[in-house]
Amino acid sequence: MILFKNVTNADDVHRALLDRSLQPEMALVDPAPTHSLFALHAAAHKAVVDDARGVLTTRTVHSELVYNLSANKHITEGLRRFGMAGDAKTVLACRFDATDAEIEAMANVIAGDAVPAGDLEAELSSLGDPAIVKKYYKHGDLECKQGVGTVEDAIVQRIGTRDVL
């Protein structure tokens, strides 16, 4: 995972993503509705498991990661809400089992300032938008009350149980 801030070529990268010509293949996530690294890891784990079972809902394991962040089953809506927009200024780039060469290639594709890995969780937390998170996940106040649960609990529960409901 690499978090990029001050991205200047988002439109070109977004176009390449839609054309399926982006190399190396990666998931490009909007950090605003992404509440935490744990939620991102839950979505990534679900994508890897679905890939191993051969039951991906989307075309690739990377697009499945973006889709799995969504609390509902609408594929297009999930990719639009949680994926990178053409005018994005911050982007979280994710690739499974990336080699050093692929990580370098990812950094070369996106023109922006890469956040050091040690600062990723704090930066991701600061970029999150609680209003968007509440709108997309529709978590209730009682559900996230002290002693009952947290927003993160509600989000991870929705990611994990979406296909069951």
Shape: globular
Q: Name the CATH class.
A: Alpha Beta
Please give the number of β-strands: 4
Q: Could you estimate the helical fraction of the residues in percent? A: 40-55%
CATH superfamily name? CGI121/TPRKB
- The helix/strand class is alpha+beta
Euclidean distance between termini CA atoms? 30 Å
- Rounded average pLDDT: 90
Number of distinct helices: 8
Order of helices and strands: EHEHHHEHEHHH
Low-pLDDT sequence parts: none
CATH architecture: 2-Layer Sandwich
Quaternary state, please?
Answer: single chain
Percentage of residues in strands: 5-15%
How many structural domains in the coordinates? 1
How does this model look, in words?
This protein is an alpha+beta fold and 165 residues long. The chain has a single domain, classed as PF0523-like, CATH 3.30.2380. Helix content is 48%, strand content 8%. The protein has helices spanning 10-18, 37-53, 61-68, 75-82, 100-109, 120-127, 130-137, 151-161; strands at residues 2-5, 27-29, 91-94, 113-114. A 4-stranded antiparallel beta sheet has the order 2-3-1-4, sandwiched between helices. Helix 2 (37-53) packs across helix 3 (61-68), helix 2 packs parallel to helix 8 and helix 3 packs across helix 4. The longest helix has 17 residues, at 37-53.
